[in-house]
Amino acid sequence: MTKVAFIGAGKLGGTVSEVMSEHYEVKVHDPKLNTDMKEVCEDADIIFVAVPTPHEAAYGGEKPTYNLAPTDFSYEILKDVLIDLNDYAREDALVAVISTVLPTTFRKHLIDIPKKYRLVYNPYLIAMGTVKEDFLNPEMMIAGGDPGDRAELIAFYQEIITTPVRWETGTFEEAECIKVFYNTFISMKISFVNMIQDIAMEIGNMDANKVCNALAKSNMRITSDKYMRPGLGDGGPCHPRDNIALRKLAEEVKLKYDLFASIMEARDFQAKRMSEYLKTFDMPIVILDFGFKMESDLTDGSPSLLVGSWIEDEEPDMFNDPEIEYDKYLSSPAVYLCSKGPNQYIIDNVAHGSIIVDPWGDDTSELEVPESIKIIRYGTQECFH
Fold this sequence. Notes:
This protein is α/β, with parallel strands linked by helices and 385 residues long. It contains 12 helices and 12 strands. It is 36% helix and 13% strand. The strands form 3 sheets. It has a 5-stranded parallel β-sheet. The chain has a 5-stranded parallel β-sheet with strand order 9-8-10-11-12, covered by helices on one side. A two-stranded parallel sheet has the order 6-7. The two termini are 47 Å apart. 26% of the residues are buried.
């Protein structure tokens, strides 16, 4: 039988370790239990680490935090445990960290800790109060690290969780991001609907619940996977201008905060970041297609035009209809932002040595791409040149 060690018997660890003990031989270590960490871990096949990564008390959320400086979690407890495990764990043991960490934590703080064991990241998406139910019926499970270690972790859970599980696996960074962005997405959602409530309290003659229910039932674009694909920013004749106008409403009703301004600022500087990436190639820049989205030729609020507006030092060449204006393509190598993704026509007409940047991360495996032309999917590891 697989031997399991569980470090951390808090609200999460205590419950999860009990569930695991119904299927495996489990030993638990926690300072409050007066257990010996070496005895608990020395013969374990897999060791779970669910120790706190706390903030200072002021950042707990019980009092206002908007005026506090941003700060990371504290990883001292977690690091101390991983250092001690190098003395206590078996050389072939798999150590699975459950504790919440910020993206890049493994890279910056944990990977370089001297260790003989193998390390994976396995954070849970569990609500306090329903720990056992959420653990046994997860919306998804997350695993980051070496593919072989992830596969071993998944096999371990198959004995415990009998319901179908959606596993999201990847690098440490991808797993870290899935965990914390899942949480912050929920926070963003709550803050947004409460903003509707605040507006209702100011303008009157409306029920915030009725408005929010209408949005909640809109499963084509709001409560669906629509727009959950990164790429070029928001655009069109409605969205940007609506946010700009709603800033005026927020000002009039004295909300004291402005989510609409934050949305537009993010849109502007996401476009600026993309323009700065295009400039890193030190090549002429060409932007293809101005339609504000994949399915439209309307140029109102065009995010590709917004990207072009940030390229101040040298005005980029910009073609709205690549297949009509192909004769204007540069005869020398250039970097092309394909606003609607690359296609064979574009590939066949750009100069050899050119770089095509795809903001949508499309699958280009069926395209015939010569070795002299490089396609880069923006937002992936391909971008690091």
